[in-house]
Amino acid sequence: MDEREKKIAEKVMGEERETVMLTGLVRERVYEFLVMKKGYLPEEIEIDMPLEVSDGKRSEECTVDYIVRPGGRPLMAIKCALTALESSERHILAFCRVAGGIPISVVTNSEAARVIDTKSGKLVSEDIQSLPGRAEGLEMTEKLGANYSEDRIAKEKRILLAFNALRCSAPNACPGKEE
Each residue of 13-49: pLDDT tens digit? Predict the structure, then answer.
């Protein structure tokens, strides 16, 4: 690696560290919001819960930042992003559908949010304050749920695996992947 390549690599690594740090702050704010403002119990919020996804050719672990389970039943999955919330919508929808029909899909930067009805794929709100509180969430989990066809699930798995490939395309970008 020549000097120019080293400088470029250092700059990229610095930007990646900054992104990781800022994303951590967003995650922290969202967690505090869920507990302090919406009343969820810490044990009802799963962090980085892995979902094994296989399309018959390959198998990978996919995650989202939070899965909120009031009373133990999945209500919403949340993906934290710094910018361009819309670009993560398809990922969170696919995750929620493959994970058994989690009813509410959320992408947020801790201030704005894209709250999506998982079954219809329609945007419900762009306000993080609109997320259901614990009491409402408990009621909702009694009524909500969705089943998807095998074809739909296969398509959603391909989408999830494609997002994983994009996220892990840089050398050393993902745990266990070293080049």
Answer: 766 666 666 677 889 999 999 999 999 999 999 999 8
Residue 163 CB coordination number (10 Å): 17
The closest alpha carbon to 119, from 144, 137, 146, 99, belongs to 146
Instruction: Give the separation between CA 23 and CA 25, rounded to whole angstroms.
Output: 5
Q: Which residues in 77-112 are b (16+ Cβ under 10 Å) and which e?
A: bbbbbeeebeebbbbbbbbbbbbebbbbbbbbbbee
Question: Pick from 159, 171, 162, 150: which is nearest to 121 by CA?
Answer: 159
**pTM for the whole structure:** 0.78
Kindly list the structural domains of the chain, giving each domain's residue range(s) and its CATH number in brackets, ordered by start. Answer: 3-167 (3.90.1570)
Q: What is the CA radius of gyration of the chain?
A: 17
Instruction: Give the Cα separation of 41 and 48 in Å (integer).
Output: 17
